[in-house]
Amino acid sequence: MTDHAAPVPPDDHSRALTIARPDQDERLPHIGLVGDTYTILVNGSETAGKYTLIDMHVPPGGGPPPHRHDFEEMFTVLDGEVEVTFRGETIVARQGETINVPANAPHSFTNSTDVPSRLLCLCAPAGQEEFFTLVGQAVATRTQPPLPLNPDEQKAFIEKAQALAPQYKTELLPPPGTTQEKQR
């Protein structure tokens, strides 16, 4: 430590303790998105915008398509496992393991097993929870899957996500092996 360190600011009594109980608290938003269910445990308004914490229920075959964003994202696998593709390389993250995805790096993950996986996702700074809320659909519980989308609904979802993504410093990437991806 140096002698020039700034003092710790005083306690901000306008901010309250946050307790998240994802299986009991009916106030927590559960959002169905790309077949997964994301529960917003702690949102940016509760952390002065510093981070958001999301409980992710990822069924077999679930997980987001390739994307990147201008914020840090960390996952801890609570149950199961996921295949994580990071800059074109794929690894398996298993229960108890944590990975950090640096800002701007292309990535995706998939649950390639036959049992659900559960991840704890931290995004810093906050904002990703707002994007999820705007493009996803509300579901009743932490493990309830979103309703399947028909082709017209799927097209509308993709268009909405692509339109909103830049506002949330996110870029949706083409799947590997497509013509668009090869031109990047």
Automatic annotation (TrEMBL):
Q: The organism sits in which domain of life? A: Bacteria
Stored InterPro entries? Cupin_2 (IPR013096), QDO-like (IPR053146), RmlC-like_jellyroll (IPR014710), RmlC_Cupin_sf (IPR011051)
The Cupin type-2 domain covers which part of the protein? 56-122
Q: Name one Pfam family in it.
A: Cupin_2
Could you tell me what this protein is called? Cupin domain-containing protein
Organism, per UniProt? Answer: Nakamurella panacisegetis
